[in-house]
From TrEMBL:
Keywords: Coiled coil, Membrane, Transmembrane, Transmembrane helix. GO terms for cellular component: cell envelope. Its main location: other. The chain crosses the membrane at residues 200-219. It is found in: Cell envelope. SUPFAM superfamilies: HlyD-like secretion proteins. This is HlyD family efflux transporter periplasmic adaptor subunit.
Length: 476
């Protein structure tokens, strides 16, 4: 044994050889770290390792997301993998058999291909292409480890001569560099080369999404809202005429008996004057008839006519006086005056019964909600409603449904909607006939209302509108 060692060349290389080998290894590792994608990294793995450890052909196996078995994904010097190739299928089955028998688990294996029973006995569809016919019968299995220490991929190197221990040690060093580069490119500490964790994460996400979709929530819809007065005094036009002036500005607080609206009275004053003159004429005629009836018996028949004309003149006079008195309209209650603008009404002709303005108690408010027909859900009296004002988006009010219209109508925005009235439930109550409150929304303020219905799943809440749109589009 000693003579054999003395007859051979020294096993320790000189310093120059060590320097050259170290430089080659460092350069190789630098090239690996400069790769910019995982695809480029895999191509480099199967094609360039031969610069340090010679081999004829390399096969890359990975565990894909759809299966836990090792699958052949890349072959050196071949641009496109032919999965239907008999040899590729046979080799893949052979590696899967070795992996299932734990022969390849987390182990660097160097063995002759033609003497391994698991490989030589593996066939598919009686393929004539046996592994024993493969020209490079010395193979080395090099596993690639993930961050958890499990081998989720591996590379099978094939050549004519068996691999030495020094070569497998060098391969282990090189593969570590490939593993670090892989995780650096993916940017995911839990990622694996084969994708096992990715598949587990995908399944977990699907389960989480399904579970979240079954989570019970209250069905709700959003609709525009406006603060409106509760039981306001509505001032309507008492006569047909033209509005001359409005004495109070919008949003003004007034007392009872405050003048509000003045109508043009020129025509009515003239008619009243004429009616007064006609009344005087009727009275004079009746007086003449009464004085002449004793001297002229023929005048007696004019007495009923004179009395009727007097009564008619009195009625006409009282009517004109009543109309004239209504040209000045006062408020019977105190409160806040609400209407659009003076310019919208002054000089405008109105008819009897046409609404002009409202006088409301600013402490008694409710919410008017216009729910579009496409958003209608099952709502009951007393249903919970949340109110969010545009002027105070971080705050809100709680309310309950008071009434909902039977049929929809077009709103100012020309949207067919159901009119919903909601009563505030979060304001203070009434004490001694007065509302004692500290935070009351201003009449006319606008915002958004969220109306709550029955309990449904989260998936139904999210998909209700898209499904309705699809049904309308398809007509089903």
């Amino acid at each position: 044994m000693a003579r054999n060692l003395q007859s051979k060349q020294p096993l320790i290389p000189n310093a120059d050889q060590v320097s050259v080998s170290a430089i080659r290894l460092l350069k190789f590792e630098r090239d690996i770290r400069q790769l910019e994608s995982t695809d480029a990294l895999k191509l480099h793995l199967v094609n360039q390792v031969r610069e340090l450890v010679p081999y004829e052909q390399a096969f890359l196996f990975q565990r894909k997301q759809s299966a836990q078995k090792l699958q052949l994904t890349l072959i050196s010097d071949i641009a496109t993998l032919e999965r239907d190739s008999p040899f590729n299928q046979t080799l893949e089955q052979a590696v899967q058999a070795l992996d299932a028998s734990k022969y390849l688990v987390d182990t660097y294996r160097s063995f002759p291909l033609n003497t391994d029973k698991n490989l030589t006995d593996t066939k598919k569809n009686n393929s004539p292409y046996l592994i024993n016919d493969y020209p490079h019968q010395a193979v080395c299995w090099v596993p690639l480890f993930n961050q958890t220490g499990l081998a989720d991929a591996g590379i099978l190197l094939a050549r004519d001569q068996a691999f030495s221990d020094q070569e497998t040690t060098l391969l282990a060093r090189i593969i570590e560099t490939y593993e670090h580069a892989w995780f650096a490119l993916t940017g995911n500490k839990t990622a694996t080369i084969g994708g096992r964790n990715t598949r587990l994460i995908s399944i977990s996400l699907i389960i989480l999404i399904v579970a979240a979709g079954l989570f019970p929530v209250r069905l709700s819809v959003m609709a525009p809202m406006q603060v409106i007065p509760q039981d306001p005094y509505v001032l309507t036009a008492p006569i047909d005429g033209v509005i001359k002036s409005i004495a109070v500005a919008p949003n003004a607080n007034i007392n009872a008996n405050t003048p509000l609206v003045t109508f043009e009275d020129l025509k009515l004053r003239n008619e009243s004057t004429l009616a007064e003159q006609e009344l005087a004429v009727a009275q004079a005629r009746l007086s003449r008839v009464n004085s002449s009836i004793f001297s002229d018996a023929d005048v007696a028949y004019e007495l009923p006519i004179a009395r009727a004309e007097l009564n008619l003149a009195e009625v006409r006079y009282r009517y004109t006086q009543e109309l004239l008195s209504q040209t000045q309209v006062t408020s019977p209650v105190a409160g806040l005056v609400t209407y659009t603008d003076r310019k919208d009404w002054e000089g405008r002709a109105v008819q009897v019964g046409e609404q002009i303005l409202q006088v409301a108690n600013p402490l008694r408010v409710q919410f008017g909600i216009d729910l579009p027909t496409g958003d209608l859900i099952e709502l009951e009296t007393g249903a919970d409603i949340s109110i969010y004002l545009d002027s105070a988006p971080l705050g809100g009010y709680e309310a309950s449904l008071k009434s909902i219209s039977h049929t929809p109508a077009a709103t100012e925005s020309n949207i067919t909607s159901y009119r919903i009235i909601a009563e505030p439930s979060s304001l203070s109550g009434e004490q001694n006939g007065l509302y004692v409150v500290t935070d009351i929304p201003r009449i006319g303020a606008r915002g958004t209302a969220r109306l709550y219905g029955k309990q449904v799943t989260l998936a139904y809440q999210l998909l209700r509108r898209p499904i309705a749109v699809v049904r309308q589009y398809l007509g089903v």
